Amino acid sequence: MPALLRPSVCPHDCPSVCALQVEITAEGHIGRVRGGDQPYTDGVICAKVARYAERANHPDRLRQPLLRVGAKGEGRFAPIGWSEALDLLAARLREAMDRHGPETVWPYHYAGTMGLVQRGAIRRLGHLAGWSRQRETFCVALSDAGWLAGVGAKRGVDPREMGDSQGDAGPPQVSLPPTGAGLGGARPWGRSELIVVWGGNPVHTQVNFMHWVQKARRGRDVPLVVIDPYRTATAAKADLHLALRPGTDGALACAVMHVLLAEGLADRAYLARLTDFSPAVEAHLARRTPARAAEITGIPTADIVRFARLYGATPRSYLRLGYGFTRQRNGAAAMHAVSCLPAITGAWQHRGGGALYSNGGLYGLDLGFLHGLDAAPPPARQLDMGRLGAVLAGERRDLGDGPPVSALLVQSTNPAVVAPDSRRVRAGLLRDDLFVCVHEQFMTDTARLADLVLPATTFTEHDDLYQASGHTFLQAARALVPAPGECRANHDFIGQLARRLGIRHPAFELGAWQLADAVLRASGKPGADDLLAAGWLDCAPPFETAHFLDGFGHPDGRFRFMPDWAARGEGHAAMPAFPDHQPVIDHATPERPFRLVAAPARHFLNTTFTETASSQRGEGRPTALIHHATCSRLGIADGDVVRLGNALGSVALHARPADGLQPDTVVVESQWPSAAFIEGIGINALVSAEPGWPAAGVAYHDTAVWLERAEPHGSAPSDAG
């Protein structure tokens, strides 16, 4: 019997949120995964998810609850039943709360699933129990602050405007449900005449966006400019790659604006009508010359001017802003400066013009019931997830007036690898007086350090509801196959724990699909069954709204060149009054002359997919990309072991000479498990937990280090496996 095809949606931490078609084998397992024919994702998916059967059916999947039986960190566990595990977990949480109060428990979670129902369960329980709240600072805190400072709303121009599509892709190709053509009418799309990707690598991280870039470039020769500290796979496809020093994006943006204003390429009528542009802003930008930016960025003055003239001469310019450059301490200021460009030229007025950072704010979903916000327990303190090591070390600056954290419930993240200052994080997780429960799909680094490990489902084994940041489609998906062994979904596990803790809420009494339906109906949307049958709901706003021609997101409808940083976070005092380069990055010094960028990989997604052999083979091994000239100067050959270090310690890994980056920039791609590194410690051991402001974001790409050729203290693995 041929395999059946069923629709699904990718839940992983990616703006694309791809529609999928999943094969179901005769044995009841998932087989090949293909792209679904949703109008934006358009049948295209990344290589990782195309091989998802390898992950879902992996022999190392956690399939039963495990209780630690050895010393912490030894990795010795014994099977335990679910009922016994839940009783133990509830007892340990009650014990901690009886001793220190509810804020001693931290429900530590993040983006391992972007499904709203499965992700929302732990937020609901934490809120109702009065546990410490979490300030989410890993990815978007600084970029959100910078974008909202200028634009005022978390939405932008649909990427489909880059291509030739007229917005009517017809019914989906999937012959089994969904059988409809989607909900939401066809819209006329534009044609971009210039595409600028700034601070992102969509070839590896948003393949659907590159699909639309290729549509725009096919037959029309649309120029592609990529601005990134190194030659990524996306930069390799560009007509112009500006390889700037990390953390200098604001200087480049201001120099571009200087040229636009000086050479008559600004749309002054637009500036007067829809922005707060003023003589003071213009005087400030008159001093931000290309020559000044060249000294800061390392980009030749002529290249800065060339890009500025190209951008200014092209009204239909599409600017795609990624998360990369916002992971600097000055990321909010940099994002704001770059977001000013389409306001200077008036590119927002044109189909195919304007910018996109995130469409996460356009869906209009009411999540109050999902998160338990209809109940109002006393407000709990907020802990910064990027400061996990400091919190577990008991620093008063981080704990405030509250108690120590004595219990962690970890879900959908792997902080032992992902969190900054990872040596300190691991030391904290090893505290004898800290109880750690991890709900996971695989035995991650964090799970190995836990007291109790519970098996979790993958997206093909539970129901959920999905919105996206990279497009405009609301989607839902049902479970396709039974969960292996004793794996349980987030929503089910959290509901069972809530009942044992005596915490009641109607959302815990609903199944995941019922809860998705309740969220949709409360938000004025079609119900879950209707959404599934249709395939999708296109939430794209009208042209005037998408392009902010009816006003930006501030009360007066004007774009802000002069932001109200106080509205963006408590750390606003040092923020620049105008668009600018904010010199608060971890500058290179004679002692630490290199800047380290810890960038995403192609075959891993954070630490997801690191367990699959095909992804391991694709990545090879942890590697430092170092400029050829720097390698020659330091006597470093391809494959040599080098050591990167700073005040937090050092990390040994293999070197690879590279072009397309500044001589003082070093790039380490991917979040490998610690065991893949020569000495058993990963690159985030060098990343500081000191936050960027105003929104306390983690500065993953803002680390000054020393570099030397060195022999390792241990032996290097022969391959990624």
Describe the structure.
Helix content is 28%, strand content 17%. By secondary structure, the chain is an alpha/beta fold. Among the domains are: 66-139 and 382-525, Rossmann fold, CATH 3.40.50; 594-687 and 691-709, Barwin-like endoglucanases, CATH 2.40.40.20. It has a six-stranded mixed sheet with strand order 5-4-16-15-14-6. Strands 20-24-21-23-22-25 form a six-stranded mixed beta barrel. Strand 2 and strand 3 (30-35) form a beta hairpin. It starts with a strand and ends in a 12-residue tail after the last strand.
Give me the CATH fold name of one domain: Rossmann fold
Shape: globular
Rg over C-alpha atoms, rounded to the nearest angstrom: 25 Å
The major β-sheet equals: 6 strands, mixed
- The top level CATH class name of one domain: Alpha Beta
Helix content: 25-40%
Structural class, from secondary structure content? alpha/beta
Provide mean pLDDT, rounded. Answer: 93
DSSP summary: helix tally: 25
Known CATH architecture of one domain: 3-Layer(aba) Sandwich
Question: Would you identify the regions where 5 or more consecutive residues have pLDDT less than 50?
Answer: 165-180, 714-721
Biggest sheet: strands side by side, in what order?
A: 5-4-16-15-14-6
Quantity of strands, as a count: 25
